[in-house]
Please model this.
Amino acid sequence: MLDVRWPTVKRRAHQVSRAMEWDGMANAAGQTVVITGAAGRIGAMLRTRLPAADRVLRVVDLVPCEGGQVVDVTDLDALRAVVRGAHAIVHLAGHGLEMPWRDILETNVQGNWCVLEAARLEGVPRVVLASSNQIAGMRPTPSPGDEPLPADCPPRPGTYYGWSKAAMESLGSLFHDRFGLDVICLRIGSCFSAPPGGRGLSTWLSPDDAGRLVDAALRAPSPGFVRAWGVSANTRGTWSMTEGRELGYQPTDDAESWASALPPAEPPAPGFSAAAGQAVLGGPLALAPVGEPQTLRDGYDD
Ligand SMILES: NC(=O)c1ccc[n+]([C@@H]2O[C@H](COP(=O)([O-])OP(=O)(O)OC[C@H]3O[C@@H](n4cnc5c(N)ncnc54)[C@H](O)[C@@H]3O)[C@@H](O)[C@H]2O)c1
Model:
């Protein structure tokens, strides 16, 4: 079979060695990793969990954060300067909830293109993308006895936000196939310091497991284009762990230890019953009014 990536992969090998030379000046042994959206919830978790003897972090956000640079991910030139010489980008920046269409397009879609394009132009060989379970938010909630839901199940979003993650993943696929980048899409469940409500007993990604998952995505040898669920080893989990484990992810936390302390359900979406939210994979967040700014309410502890 014709491998359409061959010329690009050859070019990439050259670019990688150029990046390693550059980086050798700052970090002889290891890799430089850029984190976008580093001031946010998951960014803060990763800033304290990803540092390693063989890794240097460059952290950026639209708002200041400790040790970071203020960079708008929709500014391609600024982003190119930041990722120059890096070995990987962990892209977290963006709207993490429903927003009006234009905001979603500008920040989540354009920002994602800028990250991938900056990686291509600067020879950064690997991009880890923060996708979401909301990509499949309108699927029926899997039952505990079902086969685990594969991490490449087709998109079925309930919001523009969820759709933007489908756009993110498919653009990542293009940049892998056409330009040879390694692109790892992490379909994150509920990443908070504690599981939010009863649904979180199956969807929780603990802060420590978030660190383990992203670390695995950064270290996996030649992963190619991968989708994996971002969840802990939850007793009530219903999503496949296979893809994550193939990356080298070994989750150790289980939301079950929170079970007695949690409310039975997340707060319902406006106009919907709690049962309606429980019936869809994305929970009440998937049933948010389309195109209206959404905020997290009680139950999301961070
Ligand atoms: N927390 C979760 O449970 C969860 C679940 C699924 C997916 N995700 C995804 O993970 C990522 C991080 O989530 P989070 O909970 O930390 O969100 P967050 O809202 O706490 O953080 C997002 C960060 O992105 C920054 N940002 C927004 N626009 C930017 C721009 N134009 N340029 C640079 N920075 C910009 C914000 O300032 C913020 O610090 C998001 O992409 C989100 O969609 C999170």
